[in-house]
Design goal:
mainly alpha; single chain
Length: about 100
């Protein structure tokens, strides 16, 4: 029994962008198609490798759909404007993993 790709696509977007939202699936899927801000959020999440609730579905979506691959490529090719959120400045040594 093969699942249609569109369903996987929507499920991946919902899980990645909206996570723990209290909206119903129908409400979520009504908001999804063709919303660039949602895509930016998805790509931001992927870029930071945050833990998603269903990473396999999302990974499959990006690999299998040309839209997913295109979006990822476009996102990667954009220069990063700022490197906020990293604590590793010139005067900071990385903390040893697991040791104090």
């Amino acid at each position: 029994m093969e699942q249609p790709l569109q369903l996987t696509e929507q499920r991946a977007e919902v899980l990645a962008t909206l996570g723990e939202s209290r909206l119903s699936w129908r409400e979520l899927s009504n908001r999804l198609p063709g919303r660039p801000m949602l895509w930016r959020t998805v790509l931001w999440l992927v870029d930071r490798r945050l833990v998603l609730r269903d990473t396999t579905v999302f990974g499959e979506f990006l690999e299998r759909t040309s839209a997913g691959a295109e979006l990822l490529a476009a996102h990667r090719s954009q220069p990063q404007r700022h490197a906020r959120g990293t604590r590793q400045g010139p005067g900071r040594r990385p903390r040893a993993a697991g040791r104090r």
